[in-house]
Amino acid sequence: MKSSISNSPAYRAARERAVFSHRHDRGVLRVEGGDRLSWLNGLLTNDVRALEGGGACYAAWLTPQGRMITDAFVVETGTEALLDVPAPLAASLAGRLDQLIFTEDVRVRDASADVAVVEVGGPEAGAAWETARQGLAGLLAERRVERPLPGLAVYIPRAQLAGLLESLAHAGAVPLDDETADVIRVEAGIPRFLVDMGEDTIPLEARLEDAISYTKGCYVGQEIIVRIRDRAQGRVARRLVRLRIDAPDAPAAGQPVRLDGKTVGTLTSAVWSPQANAPIGLAMLHRDAAAPGTRVTLEDGAVATVES
Length: 308
Known about the structure:
The chain is α+β, with helices and mostly antiparallel strands. The chain has helices spanning 2-6, 9-16, 36-41, 90-98, 125-132, 161-170, 178-187, 222-230; strands at 19-22, 26-32, 55-62, 68-76, 81-86, 107-110, 115-121, 141-145, 151-157, 174-175, 238-246, 256-259, 262-273, 278-286, 295-298, 303-306.
């Protein structure tokens, strides 16, 4: 893996030019109706109402106990809201949301079979997209992306997917494979739902501060988030951290992490990083083990250092 990633044309293009990927790991829910933004605002952690007229934000949907049901990118087009969610959860999320509609003018459906998500990233992403979009008739929405690569995500009818991918390649962008995309994600320290965080995660444990508004109205789970901020001064029981791992290659994810012989968390993602010239990973660790500089041990015997 070390040599393949270090010599990967996709990795070099991501850092120097432009890459593109069909985000087959993402599903799309369409939320329609005149009350959609106010309704979503009462469910999600971020200020969705501020998107009126068009825009996008990152948010989470929580249980009353403050645990995550999912994360989502909310993309408002002016006529509907698209919820960009983990693909394995799309159908169940649509069903659960539908059960929360009472008298509101809101309709929710899983449109994953009809809508594709394509990301274009890298220093030359904008130029590649402007060239490739010529002749694209069915663009539904686009969303600016800052991390892990600067660029954008676009939402198109699935029938136009093959044509757009071909146009992006002709515009000089390089296809980004899943393995390389995961390396870039972990290098940027971005957690992935169902991998680094899940239904037992409070957003602040995963450092999802950009998904939370403290000035909007009430939403489900808000009391827990505010209590952590105000009473606990932001302290949580555990924290997602980045590790630099002393090993010849990336260790297996999912293994326990120990401090002084005691299990303090789990290695959730691990990759070989050309940027660090070493294996790195993400781990959810007890707060006593999460301070930068802490040396921990993986179950396989590798030693790692908490970097952030």
